[in-house]
Amino acid sequence: MIEARELRIGNYLQPKEKAMKELWEQEMDIKPKSFGEVTSIDNDEIRLYIDSMEIEFYYEDIQPIPLTEEWLLKFGFKQNSFSLNFENDTRISIYKENNCFIAQIDNTVIKEIKYVHEWQNLYFDFTDEELTLNK
């Protein structure tokens, strides 16, 4: 289960299948495999903006989105070039190894990244900017 301390406003998450079924039973027009952007975080619940609706969930009803090359491309990175270069010659790159991505600064590995929200948070930590999806 995701904990509130792992998240920031703007992170992308998705409801678990059980939660999606409950939304459909309430006749909410949510597409399968939809994901949402975090709009509010508290100790018990989290709000996601999904398909033009803000919906409240318990933490046990949401799940992280696995980071894939497709997600990196959606964020505007170029195929096979998942890196950022800074003015002070620092380079942050991310590459796939086994079932996850590895982030490194210059040549030093700093973190294993499995989920979209982890990459969003790391990116923000180094750039003070949000990762945004290409339209």
Structural class by sheet pairing and helices: alpha+beta
Number of helices: 3
Q: How far is the N terminus from the C terminus?
A: 30 Å
Largest sheet: 5 strands, antiparallel
Unreliable residue runs = none
Query: Mind telling me the CATH class of the largest domain?
Result: Mainly Beta
Within the CATH hierarchy, at the fold level, what is the topology of the largest domain?
A: SH3 type barrels
For the CA atoms, what is the radius of gyration?
Answer: 16 Å
Which strands sit side by side, in order, in the main sheet? 4-3-2-1-5
Please describe what this structure looks like.
The structure is a single chain. The protein is α+β, with helices and mostly antiparallel strands and 135 residues long. The protein has 2 domains: 4-64, SH3 type barrels (Roll), CATH 2.30.30; 69-127, no CATH class. 20% of the residues lie in helices and 35% in strands. It is built from 3 helices and 9 strands. A 5-stranded antiparallel beta sheet has the order 4-3-2-1-5. It has a 4-stranded antiparallel beta sheet with strand order 6-7-8-9, covered by helices on one side. The longest helix is centred in the last third of the chain and has 12 residues, at 116-127. The chain is elongated and about 50 Å long. The model has no long low-confidence stretch (mean pLDDT 86).
Please give a quick description of this structure:
The protein has helices at residues 17-25, 69-74, 116-127; strands at residues 12-15, 36-41, 45-50, 53-58, 62-64, 83-85, 91-97, 100-105, 108-113. The chain has 135 residues and is an alpha+beta fold.
